[in-house]
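Example 352, ligand nicotinamide-adenine-dinucleotide.
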Amino acid sequence: MEGFVYTASPARVIFGSGTLSELPAEVERLGLRRALVLATPQQAKEAEGLAARLGARSAGIFAEAAMHTPVDVTARAMAEVAEREVDGIVAVGGGSTTGLAKAIALRTDLPQIVAPTTYAGSEMTPILGETSEGVKTTQKSVKVLPEVVIYDVELTLSLPPALSAVSGLNAIAHAVEALYARDANPIVSLMAVEGITALARSLPRIMEDPQGREARSDALYGAWLCGLCLGSVGMALHHKLCHTLGGTFDLPHAETHAIVLPHAVAYNAAAAPVAMARIAGAIGAPDAALGIYDLAGRLGAKRALRDIGMPADGVERAADLALANPYWNPRQVERAAVRDLLARAYSGDPPR
Ligand code: NAD
């Protein structure tokens, strides 16, 4: 075996069904007296429920979290943090709500307890993307890594099947790129294969029965592992393309990942044969790229960028942007081939 470097994430993780009942004890364990509960406007009710559970240790709720962590929302939250003398953050929601918690932690170093409700995996990473005047900038800091993550399967039962599908594929994308990362290591690769396997077998079952706790539990476990992959090693062309497409054309995050992934995998196939074999094995298909494309089809996910709002002239612009400041990638990033990849993703053609 070749030598490697593995950096562990220091988060405390509580996993199961009904685990939110541990929240008051966790708040007490961290010594918090005035925790602010964050959510999106759509999940304000969940936030109110958590604030009620915290009783006197709650400083109320702030339910204005939004996609891509806009800095003006963070500024409003920061004003509430100061005014209500908040000493800790509780976030209940997907990557958008976790993003707001991280943005507050970056500015204050307040401890965070995150209860994820999607499969995006942000709760496991020291990464924060923030948007100011339409420009998204990403940074890495251990300050933003949540101290405690409470995975409660019950919170995911309400995630609509369509969103569950694309969110699950978003998670798979983290594990896929971890398997061919420049700094890949055997520990993270174990988690990546296990994460893809758990999601590939559970997502079709969730489409059939969104309330099925066993499949929901399997998917959340897979999403946790995939989030760890994202937080542990560097991402490549797929994540670069999705950031570019999301930022430039304001495309929805998880849907974009779900569409681009099979094409990015096909692009890298010949340059990363060992990773491809592991991905294919985890999906249960003969070919990694086609296996992911077929999985997305079986889940009923959209497979064409034009169907989620990408303009026709976006293919050329995105190809230019992807080459402007490329991430490391196992195969050299070549304009003509990236343009071809984007054109296929735009039309929804099978990967090649
Ligand atoms: P999201 O958090 O924006 O959620 C999408 C919508 O679904 C929201 O309206 C939300 O309230 C709702 N929702 C979430 N869970 C629900 C549930 N269980 N039941 C009903 N409704 C629910 O979507 P997301 O895909 O989780 O997060 C996307 C954001 O996260 C993007 O801004 C992305 O950049 C960021 N992200 C960051 C990282 C990181 O490591 N920094 C990782 C992944 C994603």
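Summary: The pocket of nicotinamide-adenine-dinucleotide is lined by residues 40, 42-43, 67-68, 93-97, 99, 117-118, 120-122, 125, 127-129, 155-156, 158-159, 163, 167, 230, 253-254 (CB under 6 Å).
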